[in-house]
Amino acid sequence: MANKTFKKKPKKPLISPAKKLFLIVLLIPVSVTVYFCVFLVWDNIKNFSSLHHEEKINIQEHFDIEIPEEYIPIYISAGEAYGVPWTLLAAHHRVETKFSTMKELISPAGAEGHMQFMPCTFVGWNHPTCSGLGEGEIPAVEKTNPEMIEKYGGFGVDANGDGIADPYDIEDAIYSAANYLSKSGASDGELRKAIFNYNHSEEYVEDILYYYHLYEEVGEELVQLSRKN
C-alpha cells in the first residue's frame, strides 16, 4: 500500500487582518481618552497640593517666624485641657524660645526648656531650696518627678504619660505652660494678668498680646490646615 502524504491545512488566524486593523483604529481614541483623563487627574492632584502649600504660606506670610505645623495640635490639646486659647500658648512659645529654635533652651537667669520655666515654678516654690528668682538647688531626680511636683505645688505636667514631667519635652512644656496660665487667670479670660504672672514685665505682656492677636486672626484657618495633614 503506497504511503499517502497529507498536507497540513494552514491555520486560520483567530482575527483577520481586517479586524485587527479595525481594533487598532478603535483603540487609538480610547487610549488617547484614557491618557488624557489620567493626565487631568494627576494635574489636579498637583495643583491641589500646590494650592494647599500656597494657602499655608499665605496664611503665615506676614509672620516674622511661621508657627511650626507640628506644634499646633499640641497647643490645641493643651489649651482644651486647661481652658486657655491655643494661640496664647503659641504666642508664649514664640516669645520664649522662638518655637524652640534657640541654640540653648536655658536662660542666663536659669529658666529651662521650651517654655522657659524657672525650676521652682516648675517643681514648686515649697521646695526647701527655692528662694529669690526661683533657680533653686533642686536635685535632678526631683526636677522631673510628678510626685515631687505635686508635693511642692509646682506647675510641671507629665503630658505624655511617661512618668516624667520634663520642661525639655515639648508636650510636657506646653501643657505645663497651659496649666500655669490657666491657674493665673487665663481660663477666666484674664489674659493680661496671666501673662504678667508668667513674666513680671509690661513689655513682655505687650509682646505676648501682639503675637496672640496676630495668631487669633488666622487661628481657625491654621487649625483646619493642621487637621487636613
UniProtKB/TrEMBL annotation:
Transmembrane parts of this sequence: 21-42
Domain of life of the native organism: Bacteria
Keyword Membrane: yes
SUPFAM superfamilies to which the protein is assigned, alphabetical: Lysozyme-like (SSF53955)
InterPro entries reported for this sequence: Lysozyme-like_dom_sf (IPR023346)
Keywords, alphabetical: Membrane, Transmembrane, Transmembrane helix
Protein name: Lytic transglycosylase domain-containing protein
Organism expressing this protein natively: Lysinibacillus halotolerans
Lineage: Bacteria, Bacillati, Bacillota, Bacilli, Bacillales
